[in-house]
Amino acid sequence: MTVECHAALHNARMGQLYLVRHGQASLGAADYDQLSPLGQQQAQRLGEHWRALGLRFDAVITGTLKRHLQTLQGIEQGLGLTHESLRWPGLNEYDSEAVIETVHSSTLIKPTTPEGYKAHFRMLRDGLSQWMQGRTQPRGMPTYAEFLAGVTSALEHIRSQCEGNVLLVSSGGPISTAVGHVLGLPAQATIELNLRIRNCSVSEFTFNPKRHTLVSYNSVAHLETPQHQSWITFA
After folding, report:
1. The whole model's pTM is what?
2. Which residues of the chain fall below pLDDT 50?
3. What is the DSSP letter of 20?
């Protein structure tokens, strides 16, 4: 298949967009942007699930982070197929540490306990809210308007250039932003979607040249068998 999606447009054309959050990354490690061994298993399991369903993709688009590309590789291993993919920087995640620094002036300590993780996500929720409202500007990050434009530009590309089944591999922030945008949700609701999205979960849109429509959000049907339930993670 080619990197570019089909360009011919007509009013009856529709497609199905599968948005996949990356597998479990390496929270607490020196380099978070790597799938953990479990994250690799989650991605391969999703590909195996789709292979059993006979699902194939006509186009693939990903962010440019390592965990996005590693997740796609795992999915492809499970599918037994490889794809050329279009890499879209606007689908990259925000910098959570930079967001937290806007509301927490002390040196950040990586969480290692349940209480530490709760405090981490409380600060992240507060920082995201202020960033989305334009009250803060995290170090080295785009404004929220620019972040949103990066996500919506990918959706516009898919609507105008793609058809059939499209796979999009990204992170929780861009995926929840896409869902919030399509549903017209307020910032706080989008944050709550973001903080509840599971690793290697699947959200689905139908699309035509005019709009995207949400079908499902945050599904991990491929991990809900007894032998895989322990693989469900959030970080």
Report:
1. 0.92
2. 1-2, 7-10
3. E
